[in-house]
Amino acid sequence: MSTRQRAVAFDVLETLLNIEPLRERLDGIGQPEQLLQPWFMRFQRDSMALSLSGDFGSFHEVARQALRTDTEHTASEADIDHVLEGFAELPAHSDAEPALRRLSESGVRVGCLTVGNPDATARFLESAGLARHVDRVVTAEQAGVWKPAPSIYRVAAHRLGVAPHDMALVAVHAWDCHGAKRAGCRAGWCSRLEGEYGEVFTPADATADDLVTLADRLLELPER
Known about the structure:
- Helices cover 44% and strands 12% of the residues.
- The protein is an alpha/beta fold and 224 residues long.
- It is globular and about 55 Å long.
- It holds the Pfam family Hydrolase.
């Protein structure tokens, strides 16, 4: 019996992509570096709120407004542009490329499922040397809904040519894994960001401290 996942979709922001260098951009516009996480959390919250109320805003619209609010409207539009432009220059985490390569070489279809901007995501994958391992990129803007709405995970599975139960999501956010599980997918959680998996969420099918080990554990899961 095959033990391979037919497809694995990776979250991008914080899972593959390291957002820490944005702290320097915040400092460059006279804002505290510590603003990074509150801003990113506000961006996630506001995007989810739009989806829950039946609306949608693009990555740049929501991220821009969140940064205006978190800087208490002291940042100019040029300042905000400077920070947002930094997304195109962010590096990959060191375990990203070997994890994607491991899955791709094992015959698994590899995708990315992100709330990020489509063009910036494509540039990141190319510059980080990840694009050659990725079969498909699905963004919230393309799906018309934000994570963790179940429909976005089903869209990703469809784009990868598999049923939801044949796709696993990989993320460093437990809430993202929960969304995938509720959509009928499998989920692999990397503890790099959160340390412990939240008990209020549906457990992931595989967990690990790094993406490479997580990829191996997903490959070891029995076929459904």
